[in-house]
Amino acid sequence: WTSKEIIPYMDLVLEAFGPKRIMFGSDWPVCLVAGDYAQVKRLVTDFITNLSSSEQTKIMGTNAIEFYNLK
User: Fold this and answer.
1) Which sequence spans correspond to the domains of the chain?
2) Cβ(51)–Cβ(44) under 8 Å?
3) pLDDT digits 0-9 by tens, 28-58
């Protein structure tokens, strides 16, 4: 896949669920078919760059910490 192919799906998920109900994840090691882990993470961080820092933090970690009760 390419970022051009993935972005429309990411737009749809963000619109449908909002940043409070999304968490970062990967399909490691399947993502190696299209790129390494850093590329996958960069795709997400680039995509969420226009969100507030609080929303970015939620997507990249806080939502998972709260959902899985990791505190």
Assistant:
1) 3-67
2) no
3) 777 777 778 888 899 999 999 999 999 999 9
